[in-house]
Specification:
The chain is mainly alpha-helical and about 190 residues long. The chain contains seven helices and two strands, in the order H-H-H-H-H-E-E-H-H. It has a two-stranded antiparallel ribbon with strand order 1-2. Helix 6 packs antiparallel against helix 7 (about 170-185).
Amino acid sequence: MTLLQLFATFFLIGLFTFGGGAAMLSLIQAEVVGRFGWLTEAQFTDIVAISQCTPGPIGVNCATYTGYEVAGIAGSALATFALVLPSFIIFYGIITLYNKYHRTTLFSDIMSGLRPAVAGLIGAAAIILILRISMDGWMPQIEVIRENFADWSAWALLAGSFAAAFFWKVNPILLILAGGFIGFVFY
């Protein structure tokens, strides 16, 4: 049953996520940490960090790691396959439709709606790594995930990385390497 759940979970994540790996992080977190408990929040945050440092899309790396934790090498292969299968099917269909309809206003209108939705999903992924948010009636309960941002140096690294990427367009690879080095020095 676990392999079937793993396949179904990552197939649906792959099917309903637009915008790439960063956009799917919030959905992966909701399923593997919240719904099934396959990973803890700390493990999920660690794998996101590791996935940023390893080759390949972050979502695929998260699926591969989660699959391995749940069912070993077979789970790893299955989760990875399940995540990319919908993209392959959808991409093939989109290429066919794009070649036929890309100059229509309907296509342009659909893309105009998808862009802000994807930006929202990427923003949610960033917030999920920082805050634990739960609903208590009508009021959200918000707390900082202490395992991820335990002290001032973690917040300084977050702010510095954001500024370096946003304002000075520093290469993300350099930021990841610098973050790892700073983590080694401080922790």
